[in-house]
Design brief:
The complex is a heterooctamer, with 2 copies of chain A, 2 copies of chain B, 2 copies of chain C and 2 copies of chain D. In chain B, strand 2 and strand 3 (37-39) form a beta hairpin. The mean pLDDT of chain B is 92. Chain B is α+β, with helices and mostly antiparallel strands. In chain B, 14% of the residues lie in helices and 26% in strands. The N and C termini of chain B lie close together (11 Å). Chain D is built from 7 helices and 6 strands; from the N terminus they run E-H-E-E-E-H-E-E-H-H-H-H-H. The N and C termini of chain D lie far apart (33 Å). The chains are: A alpha/beta, B alpha+beta, C alpha/beta, D alpha/beta. Chains in contact: A-C, A-D, A-E, A-F, B-C, C-E, C-F, C-G, D-F, E-F, E-G, F-H. The interface between A and F is medium-sized, with 18 and 19 residues. Bound molecules: thiamine diphosphate (2 copies), iron/sulfur cluster (6 copies) and magnesium ion (2 copies). One iron/sulfur cluster is lined by residues 16-17, 20, 22, 51, 121, 125, 200-203 of chain C.
């Protein structure tokens, strides 16, 4: 199975029955696969006129009660930003898969890159939280897509699966847990009187309001303006503040459970490699080679990159005397590592942004004592 | 026998645009000093409902009165 | 018709300016739903951003006030996800014809069962009076301080060419006719486009020598020509006129109906 | 088998990517080995040269890119020119007989794959399966029957018989490979 | 003069003769002002069908030889991102003014905010440099708009002027240098043979290729794909690498000259307030009050926020024992301050994101020893 | 016509697949420029993203290969900034009709002097064969594995309704006619839209039982109906047909001409 | 004059924003003082209550927002209700005579601005200039002639005479302001 | 007297699509084993230029030969 295909399988298994998208290399197989697999399941695939419309249709379908996904790559991801912000604001569950290619602009449409890492966090205007997952294997692609749908539903928020061309187009053996271990989450439903229903009233400590589907008996208003518990616009500062804080807090609160990662040999290490996505494959090869050479190196592979797993990174890195951050860009997530780590620990970037998968050798070269 | 009407103006909703007054065939509606519409000559209302139809703010209702004279 | 059944009366009076035509068009929508007897719980109103799009907040249905220019794309998602819903889009000449023009023509092409009502006040009201793609040539607006040199769209012709099943234009002046078009639009399976000429006294009227809402309504009256009469006039005579009436009524198969057939055939009859 | 890197190259449209996919699927389904398959995409994959790459290994495969292939198949001159450079010094190379190659060390075979496919099967459409079967037989990745299963799942309906023959032809070529052997650099220098 | 108007005046004085835009609150006065002022100067104003088209038209006009500007606010800024990346990639000089309002999504269209600070840096897909200026007065609005046009021309890159609603709508006394002090830059022109002209050939040490206008006798190709010196696409890693590095380096090289800021009382201070834009007004009031109370506080007002003036900030902050970063968002530029400063210095955010201008009191409260 | 005068011959052969129709349309463009005798230095070709849009790289003018869907918007900036330039837009059915539909109709409306040539191969070629808004109903494509259920646009009708001064459709099969439309389109002041039916053997043909480029050309031949003949046929008979010919020829005043007049009047005659 | 905060409020469309702009321009052009003018925007500025705010100061004005006005003008009840809250305890308040106000300390005047404007000038269109002139005269921000210059630059052509009269009326009201004085809280409690 | 032509095929540009061969009225063009077009029967070319017109790759030129027989 290809990485892109695994994303589709993961999403379908999590209950996705709606896809709207616009083709773009190297993500198109996701659309093509949904086009083939949804109608037999009674689901809907639609190719919209552009990425903006796709994002809008996904949010519309989500509010109509479907678990909904869209997929794209760099240029399309830029176009979707406005409505990703809308989805965040109205708390419409949805998943956006971005199979990264080399940018900026048209760049190298068929080459791998990890240049949209900061954009995934900061791409839409205004303050907003972001939940972003980065697979580094085809198995990950399946699992994280499944997880993304679950989290989108549970936290009522867009979740981004940030692949790269390498993982999207990779075929390899997939190892999945048994179906019974895969627990599906769906959005919370209201139970009270439809007449007094307030769509953004918070009754649960998870800070997340229930979301009934259109036509399900509840009628409510939804807007991208700041709104109060009734869903209607308000510009009272206390309302604004409450809403924005809640949007952040509903995720912050569960931060620890959201930090997915793998780590190798952290204890017996005085150096640390941090990586994610396709780069993590090279990082792991580098880590193995370093270990073979007898270097005391640890490896941290991040699966959740936003919210940035500050605690995991500081914990893994605080006692090291060299940290290498391997990524296929000019240095993006390294900024976060620098932000959270003490200045006395040297932090080095192993970077590559020329459209070629970063090599283990490049990463090795940033470790101390290699030669 | 011509209908007669009683006009209710929902003052908080009225914005004083004067559309109703202009469409009233009997010209019995007029703006008050505070910018709200009022019925200047209630007797002459023929319950034609033009004002109701035309008010963009749904601020008028007209009740048909039994013509008991 | 009881106001309470279709309006969130506690939100009234609406924010629109004195004499703004949008209130009249909104009422016409409520009447349309009433005439068809739709269950308000099955009605979804999707709007964009603009004064007109604020209508969503007052109508007591499922209402979705989205982003500027994209309500039709959101609505496409809603309708396709659940074809049993009655999906109405409320948009403006900026929202629907400027930034949103592409979604409009693509929805026409797909002939998806959405009823679009475009409040055409020939100006960007919400942002205080810039010209729109439907502002008449020569008009004054904040961004055409020397008079607008861009020819306006005839969106009825365009949506017709793009494949809509129903296309009509009415005016706030001719309200009863507008109500009748609304009913026809709503009762049509497939995509319908209904353009309602509305008035913006605040930003269009004031700058264009139409000082009162009444003058604007009279302008509508004087400049409207019924489509049947228009057929006999030549383009020069029609310049600057509002052609009203029904532009097209077709019965091409609706998109979600076609989709359901596709699913049925893929599933081999079972469902 | 430690990490073994395979590159199948030729002209766009020759179906080598499908060959790569079939090979990797065979490994996944019928062996315990790890496998990775990648390919190059984009306009350059249309017309021009095209390649599919497969890595097979007993161990976890981290770095998924083929950098120094152990095995290169090049069906066209363009593919050879573009992709032969980084072949391992003693890696195996199989080229179509019409490809001009520079002398090198390592086993090198110039096989009339395209000509024989055309002659024996009446079409070149299945040159990919011929090549795949040749490779599989040579390395005995999976048994013939298993490979056949997957091939038949993946090829268009109606072409099953043709593909079975292609598989046979490929294996036959593999069995007779030595007769196509090219003398290596050193051998020539002798 | 209003802040928005000052932007127009600054741009016109710098030679701008083309504006394409789409109205949006609170930036619309910029469009309206250009609409009134360009035709009398023989310039062109066009209202496009949306923000994407506006950005495209601006780049088209720029390549046709005009100095060109567009203006927008949050939602429109999100939409422009794809083509901002294109402008970066093809090196088309242009200026984007973003008058920030409270987001995410439609948010509070008429309220001030500084929520697009990180987006201005990271909003488009792929790695790319950014040059972003933040006025905190109407005078600044004029000067920085003038400067933005100059820099766009000189560095052949999009430059962003990041205002906020407060500054955009503020009227106050403007103090300008004499006209003679205002030096206008225009893009470099080629001189060689049109037949052998290579549009991206670097001959000067400033790393910036000349840019002839269409119709000026030179014919050349331009693409958003990675391209070599001839302007034609290439996916050779060394070409890709060279181009991306040059795009960054042509700005990095001049970084020091790009750092515009104001500072007050840094020397005799043990605490530091850092701010920018409208927040800097409140910060200055807070600083004054703190000084009045006898606190040893310094103030750093950043005008250039991207590239982040690391050297200026570390220089100003390294010897302080409290740094307060005042901004109207949930904490954006503070991340950069944290990144560059030593961990032992406490860094506190004075933040407000409810649509109300941050108050001097809020900032004061973050200083030590206020009460 | 000398190839060298209009082509960057050192870039040839082009990247297009064997038998791709885009090469023929590109040649027709070069011939058009040649016939009008335009100075190549004053010609600007703006394209979007797609196989078709790659044509910009081979034509020896000022060539601007932009982003997907927006070439007309870029071109609007170019033309308005310098009305003396001859601005040609090369786009595809995805680039120009899907993501770029809105820019197309707005440029028609403004009637700005841009010549749009849309290479309609009824598929997304560059991204390997997804259906486009101009893919015929029932066609197989990677994203319509069960056959396309969306009706295609007739962009000639649409651009005509939107206000273009010149609209025509030709095919690669009828090359000499295409050449003549090209010449007419280019010589028209104001906005022109010329649709060239092209063939994508790789992604459309293979999946739709048109195995060779020749079969695709013959499909064009057999399915084309001249607009004059089409007038006498009813909609049912025309379904799935390619109507070729000139759809409209008007002489409404071009946008930059109007703009220059505005400037002149604002400046009070001086300039 | 240390920092002095002014808020002019009324109904949308009464032109108070223009009044604020004229006032601030007068300060810029004819005094050495610093000045800042801000206004509220958006749909709420259409219909409903609307306000323009000006800050005048001898010193640099950092924080540009009016938080505790020294002076409040409220022409309508809605404006009063919305905007009177944060007026300084001893700040000056001028309201239209028809506005109901709660008793307070600080100088408070209920002036028949709208009525007199209508009566004397035959239109309410210039109520903004009347109010502006009243304020200016009261505080003597700039001389009458200077204010007039700017008013005439800013008002629509053809309304110059009307606006001159409005200016006179406003000054007259300022001169007679004491007769409109409302007894303060404390005074009432006596 | 019928024209005669000499056909030049720019081999590196030819992609073997066979369009020219199909449009040649004399059917004298045919694909070579390596996928390039060649003139099978040069004598019969009538210089009609169909192949030139039809080749989407500009790979053919035809020279009119003086008919000296
Ligand atoms: C992406 C984006 N661009 C621009 C705006 C600003 N904007 C809001 S409403 C509007 C125009 C509204 O005009 P119209 O649709 O005609 O509605 P009206 O107010 O006239 O009823 C604009 C340009 C926005 N909110 N979002
Ligand atoms: C914003 C964006 N979305 C999607 C793409 C991917 N894309 C590139 S070309 C293309 C379609 C091209 O189709 P068409 O315009 O018909 O050209 P053709 O290749 O068929 O000639 C698409 C979807 C992109 N590059 N950018
Ligand atoms: S039409 Fe309605 S809002 Fe207007 S004046 Fe009459 S009652 Fe008031
Ligand atoms: S019902 Fe008719 S007559 Fe009576 S007030 Fe209304 S419009 Fe006038
Ligand atoms: S601005 Fe115009 S469109 Fe908007 S509410 Fe006022 S009158 Fe209506
Ligand atoms: S994919 Fe289709 S459109 Fe693209 S070059 Fe090949 S044949 Fe032409
Ligand atoms: S010129 Fe005519 S006859 Fe000669 S090869 Fe070409 S098509 Fe055939
Ligand atoms: S048409 Fe051109 S490319 Fe095709 S076979 Fe003939 S010469 Fe070759
Ligand atoms: Mg409007
Ligand atoms: Mg196409």
């Amino acid at each position: 199975m290809q990485g892109n295909e695994a994303c589709v399988e993961g999403a379908l298994d999590a209950g996705v029955r709606f896809y709207a998208g616009y083709p773009i290399t190297p993500s198109s197989e996701i659309a093509e696969d949904f086009a083939a697999k949804l109608p037999p399941l009674g689901g809907k695939f639609i190719q919209m006129e552009d990425e903006i419309a796709s994002m809008a249709a996904v949010v519309g379908a989500s509010l109509a009660g479907q678990k909904a996904v869209t997929a794209t790559s760099g240029p399309g991801f830029s176009l979707k930003q406005e409505i990703i912000g809308f989805a965040t604001m109205v708390e419409a569950p949805c998943v956006i898969m971005n199979v990264q290619r080399a940018g900026p602009s048209t760049g190298l449409p068929t080459s791998p890159a990890q240049g949209d890492v900061m954009q995934a966090r900061w791409g839409t205007h205004g303050d907003h939280p972001a939940l972003v997952l980065c697979p580094s294997s085809v198995t990950d692609a399946y699992l994280l897509s499944f997880q993304a749908v679950n989290w989108a539903e549970r936290f009522r928020t867009p979740v981004i699966v940030l692949l790269d061309e390498t993982i999207g187009h990779l075929r390899e053996r997939v190892r999945l847990p048994g179906r019974e271990e895969m627990v599906i989450s769906s959005r919370k439903q209201p139970h009270g009187d439809p007449e007094t229903f307030q769509p953004y009233e918070i009754t649960d400590e998870d800070l997340i309001p229930p979301l009934p589907p259109y036509g399900g008996g509840y009628r409510f208003h939804t807007t991208g303006l700041y709104h109060d518990e009734t869903g209607f616009p308000s510009n009272r500062p206390e309302v604004t503040d409450r809403l924005l804080n809640r949007l952040h807090e509903k995720i912050d609160k569960y931060k620890e459970t959201l930090f997915l990662y793998e780590s190798y040999g952290l204890r017996q290490a005085n150096q640390l490699i941090i990586s994610y996505g396709a780069s993590a494959r090279s990082a792991k090869a580098a880590w193995r080679k370093a270990r073979e050479k007898g270097l005391l190196v640890g490896l941290l592979i991040l699966k959740t990159i936003w919210p940035f797993p500050e605690e995991i990174v500081t914990q893994a890195g605080h006692d090291k005397n060299n940290i290498v951050v391997a990524e296929m860009n000019k240095g993006q997530l390294i900024g976060e590592v620098e932000r959270v780590m003490d200045k006395r620990i040297p932090i080095r970037g192993a970077n590559r942004a020329d459209g070629v998968l970063i090599t283990p050798e490049q990463i090795l070269a940033k470790l101390e004592g290699v030669n | 026998m011509p209908k007669k009407g009683k006009v209710y103006i929902n003052e908080p909703w009225c914005k004083g645009c004067e559309i109703c007054a202009n469409f009233c065939p009997k010209k019995i509606l007029g703006l008050r000093g505070d910018g709200k519409m009022e019925v200047k000559d209630p007797e002459n209302c023929i319950a034609c409902n033009q004002c109701v139809l035309r008010c963009p703010d749904y601020a008028i209702k007209v009740e048909v009165i039994e013509n008991n004279d | 018709m009881e106001l309470e059944k279709y309006f969130r009366v506690e939100k009234l009076p609406h924010i629109w300016c004195p004499g703004c035509g949008h209130g009249s068009v909104m009422m016409s929508i409520a009447k349309g739903v009433d005439k068809l007897g739709w269950d308000p719980k099955k009605v979804v109103v999707v709007s964009g951003i603009g004064c007109s799009s604020r209508a969503a907040g007052y109508l007591n249905f499922n209402t979705l006030h989205t982003v500027h220019g994209r309500p039709i794309a959101f609505a496409t998602g809603v309708k396709l996800a659940n074809p049993e819903l009655h999906v109405i889009v409320i948009t403006g000449d900026g929202d629907g014809a400027a930034i949103g023009g592409n979604h409009l023509i693509h929805a026409c092409r797909r002939n998806i069962g959405i009823n679009v009502v475009l409040f055409n006040n020939q100006i960007y009201g919400m942002t205080s009076g810039q010209y729109s793609p439907m502002t008449p040539e020569g008009s004054m607006a904040t961004t055409s301080p020397f008079g607008n040199i861009e020819p306006p769209f005839d969106l009825c012709e365009l949506t017709k060419s793009a494949g809509a099943n129903f296309v009509a234009r009415g005016t706030v002046y001719h309200l009863p006719k507008l109500d009748s078009y609304m009913e026809k639009a709503f009762s049509k399976k497939g995509f319908s486009y209904l353009e309602a000429i509305s008035q913006c006294p605040t930003y269009y009227g004031r700058r264009n020598k139409l000082k009162t809402p009444l003058e604007m309504l009279e302008w509508q009256k004087e400049n409207s020509i019924d489509i049947k009469k228009a057929k006999d006039l030549d383009p020069e005579e029609l310049k600057g006129k509002i052609i009203t009436g029904i532009f097209t009524e077709r019965d091409e198969e609706e998109y979600t109906v076609r989709y359901d057939k596709l699913i049925a055939s893929v599933q081999g009859g079972k469902k | 088998m430690a990490r073994y890197e395979i590159r199948l190259s030729g002209a766009g449209g020759q179906g080598l990517i499908l060959a790569g996919i079939i090979l990797s699927e065979a490994v996944v389904r019928f062996t315990d080995k790890e496998v990775i398959q990648t390919q190059s995409y984009g306009p350059e994959a249309r017309g021009g040269a095209s390649k599919a790459e497969v890595i097979i290994s007993d161990e976890e495969i981290d770095y998924p890119q083929v950098n120094k292939p152990d095995f290169l198949l090049a069906l066209t001159q363009e593919a050879y020119n573009k992709y032969n450079r980084d072949l391992k010094e003693y890696g195996t190379m199989v080229v179509d007989e019409r490809v001009d190659i520079s002398p090198r060390g390592g086993p090198t075979y110039a096989v009339p794959i395209q000509r024989l496919t055309q002659e024996k099967l009446g079409t070149r459409m299945v040159v990919n399966v011929v090549s795949l079967a040749l490779f599989n037989k040579l390395h005995e990745v999976v048994e013939t029957e298993k490979l056949k299963t997957i091939i038949l799942e993946r090829v268009p309906k109606g072409t099953e018989e043709l593909n079975k023959k292609a598989l046979e032809l490929g294996e036959e070529l593999a069995n007779n490979l030595n007769q196509f052997k090219i003398k290596g650099k050193e051998e020539e220098e002798e």
